[in-house]
Structures are given as structure tokens and as C-alpha cells.
Amino acid sequence: MLPRLDFTDVIAPLYQQYLKALKKTNFSGDISCHYGSRLAVATDNSVYQQLPQAVLHPKTVEDIKLIAAISSQEKFNEIKFSARGGGTGTNGQSLTPGIVIDLSKHMRKILDVNVEQGWVKVQAGVVKDQLNEYLKPLGFFFSPDLSTSNRATIGGMINTDASGQGSLVYGKTSDHVLALRCVLANGEEFSTKAKSLEENKVLMAQSGTIGEIYKTAYNSCFDNREKIKEKFPRLNRFLTGYDLENVFDDELTQFDLGRLITGSEGSLAIVAEAKLNITPIPKVRALVNIKYDSFESALRHSPALVNAKALSVETIDSRVLNLAKQDIVWHSISDLITEVDNQPMDGLNLVEFTGVEQDDVEQKIDALTQTLQQNIDNKQLGVIGFQLTYDLASINRLYGMRKKAVGLLGNTQGQAKPLAFAEDTAVPPENLADFILEFRDLLDGYHLDYGMFGHIDAGVLHVRPALDMTDPEQEVTLRNISDQVVALTAKYGGLMWGEHGKGYRSEYGPQFFGDELFHELRRIKSAFDPLNKMNPGKICTPLASDEQLVSVDAKKRGAFDREIPITVRESLPSVMNCNGNGLCFNFDSKSPMCPSSKITGDRRHSPKGRAGLMREWLRLLANKGVDFNELQREANLVSVKSLALRTFNTLKGKIGAYDYSNEVMDAMSGCLACKACASQCPVKVDVPDFKAQFAQVYYSRYLRPVKDHFVAQIENLAPLMAKAPNLVNVSIDNPLFKSFSKHALGYIDTPLLSVPTLKSQIKAQQFETFDLAKLSALTIDEREQYVIVVQDPFTSYYDANVVSDMMQLIAKLGLQPVLLPFMPNGKPQHVKGFLKEFAQTAKTASELLNQIHKLHIPMLGLDASLVLCYRDEYNQILGDNRGDFNVLLAHEWLTELIKQVPSLESKYLPVYQLFSHCTEKTALPSSEGEWAGIFEHFGLKLSPVSVGCCGMAGTFGHEKQNQKNSKGLYDLSWQQPIDAGDTAYQLATGFSCRSQVKRLGQKQLKHPVQALLMHL
């Protein structure tokens, strides 16, 4: 039986006292002390892991001031903090053993905008893409770019002085910060903006902390200006840290303390709000995709491309390119990166041009493409081809692939994974090719695999060597490579941290700055934070402190993972492969990626959060000498003794007995099992898969909720209830049953059975019944006239008209439909973790479906989640015993069929709107386009509507505990387009989607096949 897992890391007494003191104030934010909440922010996108004492989620600037002010009491001098945004740092910038102040949950408001003056004011938790979505209708954007823009916060960008593609023109974040509203370690609020030297002298003359800060910063930066200019590399990515040089303007007439805050990694103050300048959106954009015979050719060509007056030059090596070809992203860009006949494509440069006038951009493009064609004709510079596009959607898709490169590198086979630790080196662009060749020699000397991509126009290349951090020897290799890369960048006139901050690489600061300038950094830190409370150990320490800088030798995730037996790690790759990339934090409500993360704002309720909780659960089991794989084998053993123990454990849990497994279950229970993570996540973290495995083991210790048994049996109950649908409907559609269902079963808004039933409709239409022997006796030519419709429990018993209409559509297309007698699919069993029962269901269904498959008669189903279960979960549970059968979705079958059916003339009708099932459009990304092609073939127009999850997801939306989240998700992206559209022209492919719209939108949507039937 699963053992109880005790609390393993108790909050330190001093921090407990501090949190009690904070609760007694007017603090309006959230205070999270649960072990799971702390674990969720113990990692970022780096190799490090550091468990904090607690997580605070302030809602206002006053909350932040309270956090700091209480800690400034003498008895709390040892309390430490670190501000956190999207948690996308690659070097542990926001990790702390103290308290995490997470600004991303509540402080996400855009406060003000002034288009005439070109600025916007935001709270620190605003996501970069969220801001640009807001600014786009105004014709502006916040121009510093980065690959994590759909989850990185403005506060995080400021603290790391983030930049990316286009930085030669658009600069870094610091170039766009006009003013900051900050809170100091003592709770004082202060603001920064560029001030005249006269204004600055007035501030320097003040007594108190703020006066001391201005005086110290001014004197350090002014008195050492020549040393600073001599030491700092003349690079676009000049520094991440305290920007001692650019606090002054070039004429030394203005002083801006904000330039020190920007890039300080939260070690000086907490940034609460920012005023940023905004840039007009270019009216014309063009992208030239240049293909090379080698990565070196792509690198050496970059100076010429920069001289062509391009906005940016981004490079990608063959490794990243090949990984992209295996990912969901490739379907959207394959036509933009076509192969070159008989020539390997081992390097790629994406060269973008922008402008106000079309002619200006075209002139630059023409000059470049003529030169490129000459290079190809003369076989020069390794150029083997190029493609050009002015289409904005195509440009964005190509950059989408480039932005996903970080995650794609994590999706490699084997224990060694490409890691971020020396991945943002910056050298003068003219030195880049030689630097990279020597860098490659360095890595090849360790016999490592690696991928490369980056901003070669700025001399920045992202290099991620593949290492296994569960191997102590490879951890030593990481240290050795780090030391060598620091020396190598210095040799070529650059620095190791060109883009992603120092974080745990802060130990190299003294080596880079030298003793004198590093002393000045410590002076500045002393003025801002004399007690070393703000992200201690990062950048530098105060002069009076004897605390050490953090080091690349700090404890890593791999050190914790190596405590898990390798057999367990290998059995749960989806859990172990999560690299913290954080794509699951995507802010966009119209993205299907992880609806539970969007609606809760809780990092635990995300694929990254759940994978992290699961890893720790496996580690704690291992520390108790318990093997997860053995627990799985024992989980299905049932006895009177085990029932008694489960009852006892459940009652103990209800009265407050702690068990870490309950924290994991709490996070798992919020998962909608939509499977978006399984395809959208770059490393394919499949939460529904390991959620089912966890539930199976968890319920060997605790009693299952009654509703889980009800859901698992729905496929057996539905056919029985359909024998008397009117009686069942009357029974469940009354206040007494609704109350019983809500309180006893935990089930809300039970759907009514279809009347007339599917059975009666099929009988009335006199369709041929299923007879396997008869079908087997047919000739091959005769079988080509048949199509078998595979039933699912939801569509067949609760939306029977869809199945009936599918049968009629097949008949109208000149073929003979046959309805396969209903047999359980098992998806509900899998969702609830009844894996033994699911395995038997899958085995039974596969046996019949494989028999039909041998007849070469196409089989199709109507609900994506059930049909895709045949392909995914059946493979996972049955392996090679699954067989080769294939059940198509309606659009897959129709896409092939219309190749043989004459097209129809266009009909003058409104455009149909398609609301796709999120499982369908993530697992089958071309599905929406295929539906549009099918409708066009039959003379109709169909346009996909961009929406996220509807909030139903099978039975999730009917469960009592999920009502708030289910309705919230519907309101997030479905309500507005549903309410605004004409029901007659709104279509939804998923039964759960149609059910949710009926429940919350009071509309009955049709399936696309029903619309087609109306017009044939």
C-alpha cells in the first residue's frame, strides 16, 4: 500500500513568525505555505532547484511595502526575499531559500497608455504578449522581444534587462524603461526616471536611505566612468547586472537610477510598476529565409546580412531544425522551409526587414535576393537556397518555430538533455564564427551533443550542451565547461551572460569586473540593501556582509532526481523530462494550452507544476524504500483489510492528518485531461497519462469518490439507461435528484438522454445492421462501398442526432453506412485512473476493431477525445498488442473522400464558424484547415474561431468541485464569440463543447457533418 509521506521541509521558525506577523496586517494578497506551492517555484528554466520558505502573491504596491516593512523589524533582519515573474529564467535568477514574492498572479493590470506621447504604464506582472495584444489596436508594440514572450512578465524583463530578436534596432528592455515604481528592502517606496544633474543633487542631499542611494550611485558611476567604459565590452548586449555606464546619458546631463535597477535581478529593489516607451508597429515586414550547406556558412554570412540593413538576423542549426520537423509546429511552417534538391540543409538564417514604405523594403529585399541568387549560381558562401515572404502570418509562424527552439532541444532521447548554463554568450559579431568554432571544439572535446540558435546580428548564440545531471560526473563537467566558456568569451572580447542574466553564475562577477569595479557594485548594493535581504548572493553582496555569492555548484534538480530509481524514471519519462521551459504558462486565453493554469493562476495547476510535484512524490517514495512500479502492480489488489485501511486513512485525512500525496492529488484533480500538453509542450509532458498512473496508486491508500465510480461506469450505464430514456430523463430532471446528485455524487447538470434514441432512429431509416460474417463474405470491391461508424457513449446516447446525420451523410455520398454496435472505449476509466479496467476494455475493443481492420473497410468516429484515445492511450496501455486498426475522425475520412467526389458550386450563404475541440486541434493541428477545405469543396465557407478550452472536457464541467473553473473557462474565450454569433451558423466538433454551450450559452450547436448534410 502507498505509505503516508510526511512533511519533509518544515518552514523555519523565524519565517513562521514573520508570516504570522504579516497576516495580522492589512496585507490583501495570498500567503502560500503548502509544500506543493513552494515546490512549484523551487525551479525555473535552469538546472537549479531551491525550495523557498513560502510564496507571497501581493495584489497592490501597498502589499509589497508591507512585505518589506514587516521584514525590516530588527527581529526579522534575517528574512530574505526574491521577486518572481514568469519563472522563465535560465540561470536561477529568482530562486531563493527565503520567500518568493510572485508578482505574476495578481499584479497584471495595464494601468494607463498615452499614444500621443508614446508610453504605457503597467504593473510588473503583465505578460509581454498580453501588453502587445493590448497595444496592437492602437498601432504600437513594446519592442524588446524574447522567445518566452507569451509567459515572461515585464517585471522579469526589467530585472534581467531582457532582449532578443531585433535588438540591434529595438535595443534592450533598459532602452525602453522611462520610469519605475519600486519598493526597497526597508519598505520605502521610491520612483526612478531620468533627472537632470541639478535634480539629482537635490536628492543626493536628502538624509535617509533614498538620499544615500542617489549619492552612492552617482559617485560610484561618475568617479569611475573611464574605468567603466574601458572595462565594459562595446556590445549590443553590453551587460546584465548593475549598468554603471548608462545611468548617465552620453552628454552627462542626465542621471537615471532606473538603469541600475534594470538588470539587477531583484537584488536592489522590487519593481512594482513601470512606465515604458512604445514603438509604432512597422507597416511593412518581410522575411528572407536563407538556407546553407553548413552552420559555419550561416555564421560567417551574418556580417553581410547586417550590412544589408536588416532588422534582425536569427540563426538555427540543423539539430534544432530536425527537432522542429518532429514537432506539432512543423505543420505550420513546412511550406516556408522547403528542402533543397540533393543538398543537405545544415544551417538557416532568418533575415527580417521592416519599414514604413513598401518600396523601401522592396529595394533592400531586391538587392539582397539578387546577391543571394548569385551566391547560389556561383556556389559561394555556402548559400544553397532562400525563400521570401511578406505575409505577416507566415512570418509569425516562422518566429513561433524559432521561439520554440529552446523547448525543442529538451525533447531529445536519452538521459542527457541540452541544458542552459552557458547558453547566452555574447561576442562582437565579427568574432562570432571563430568563437563558435572554438566553442564547438571545446564541447566536442567532451564528446557532447548540442544544438545552436540565436541572434547572430548581435553576436549572441544560444548553445545548450546535452548533459545528464543525475550523473555526478557530468555535473562536474558542467562546472568545467562553465569555467572554460568564461575564459573563451573573454578571449574574443565578449562576456558569458549576454542576455539571460547572471543568477548562479554570479560567482564569475569579480573575475569580469575586477576588484575595483566589483567593489563599487558592492557599495551600491550596500546603499540599497545593507542587510542583503533582496535576492542575496546574486550579482554581489553588500560590503559589510560575509555571505557568499551563489555558485554554479549549487544543488541542481538532477541531484534530487538521482534519488529516484532509474527504473522508475524510465517508466515516467513525461514526468522526468520537464525542463521548466514554462510554455504551459501561456497567458493567451485563446490558446488551448493548459486551461487549469490559466483559470487558477496557480503554478501547481500546470504541466510544469504537476510534473514537479510528481517528481518530488517519487523521490519521497524512494526515500522510504518504496518502488512506484511495484505500487502500480499492487494497486489493483482488493481485500476487506485494504478496504478497511483505505476507509481509516480517508477519515484521518478529513480530520487533518498530513500526507504529501494529498497535495499532489489536489493538483491532479484540477487537470481537465484535455491532452493539450501532450502535443503543445515542446518536451511532450503528458499530464493525463501520469495523472492516471498516480490516481491508480493513490487510491490504494484512500477511498475513491463515488463520482469517480459513476464516471468510470458511464459506458456501461448509458446503454442500460437508453432502454427507457423518457423514464430516466424524468427521474434525473427534477429538483430531488439534482440535489441528491450534487451532494451524494458530486455531479451537477446531468445531461439528458437523446429522445428518440439512436437505435430507434437507425431502425426508422432502415440502415443495414452490422454483421461481421456478412461483411467478411463481401468481395474487395463490395467492401469499398461500406463505411463503419464507431460509436462513443456521449454522442450516441446524449447527442444521437449527430450519429444519425453522419449515417445519412455517408448515404448521400453514395456509400453504405453501418453502425458498429456500441462497445466501451475506456476513456472515462483512464481519466479516473482505473487502469486495470481500462486495459481490459482496450483489449476487448482492439480485438474487434482489428478484425474489422482486416476487411479494409474504413471506420470513423465522431468525438475526438474518444477516437484519439484509440491512438494514444491504447498504445500506452497495450503496446504492440494494440494491433494496427485505425479509427478516423469525420474530417479525416471526408478529406480523403472529396478527392473522388466532384466539387459543388459556391453557395451564397453566411460563413460557418467552427469551434474545434481542443484535443482535436492540438493533436491534429491541420484539422481546422481540413474542415475548411471540406466545406469549400461542397460550396460552403467555414472559418475557425480562435478559442481555448470551453471548460467542460468530458465530465470535468459536471463535477461539483470544478464548477467555478469550468464556468470561468467558458467565460474566458467562448462566451463572447458564442453570444455574438448566429446559432444556425455555429458548429462545434466536440460533444463536451456542444454540451457546455447548451448549458451556459443556452444554444444548441450542430456538428459540422450536420451542416454538410443540410446542403447535400
Task: Please characterize this protein's 3D structure.
With about 1000 residues, this protein is of the alpha/beta class. It is about 45% helix and about 10% strand. The chain contains 47 helices and 28 strands. Strands 14, 15, 16, 17, 18, 19, 20 and 21 form an eight-stranded antiparallel β-sheet that branches. Strands 5-6-12-8-9 form a five-stranded antiparallel β-sheet. Helix 23 (about 605-625) runs antiparallel to helix 26. The protein is globular. The mean pLDDT is about 95.
Number of strands: 28
**Strand content range:** 5-15%
What percent of the residues sit in helical stretches (DSSP H or I)?
40-55%
Rough shape?
globular
The main sheet comes to: 8 strands, antiparallel
List the helices and strands and how they pair.
Blueprint: H1 13-23, E1 30-32, H2 35-40, E2 54-57, H3 61-71, E3 81-84, E4 99-102, E5 110-114, E6 119-123, H4 128-135, E7 140-141, H5 154-160, H6 167-170, E8 177-183, E9 189-193, E10 195-196, H7 197-204, H8 209-223, H9 225-231, E11 254-255, H10 258-261, E12 270-277, E13 279-280, E14 284-292, H11 295-307, E15 312-317, H12 318-325, E16 347-355, H13 358-377, E17 383-389, H14 392-403, H15 405-410, E18 417-418, E19 425-426, H16 432-445, E20 450-455, E21 460-467, H17 472-491, H18 509-528, H19 557-561, H20 566-571, H21 573-576, H22 595-600, H23 607-623, H24 628-634, H25 640-654, H26 660-669, H27 676-680, H28 687-698, H29 706-712, H30 714-721, H31 725-732, H32 735-745, H33 758-765, H34 772-777, H35 780-783, E22 786-789, H36 793-798, H37 800-812, E23 816-819, H38 827-831, H39 835-853, E24 859-861, H40 864-871, H41 873-878, E25 887-889, H42 890-897, E26 912-915, H43 918-923, H44 927-937, E27 942-944, H45 963-980, E28 986-988, H46 991-1001, H47 1008-1014
Parallel strand pairs: 2-4, 3-4, 22-23, 22-24, 24-25, 26-27, 26-28
Antiparallel strand pairs: 1-2, 5-6, 6-12, 7-13, 8-9, 8-12, 10-11, 14-16, 14-17, 15-16, 15-20, 18-21, 19-21, 20-21
Helix pairs in contact: 7-8, 8-18, 16-17, 23-26, 37-47, 42-44, 45-46
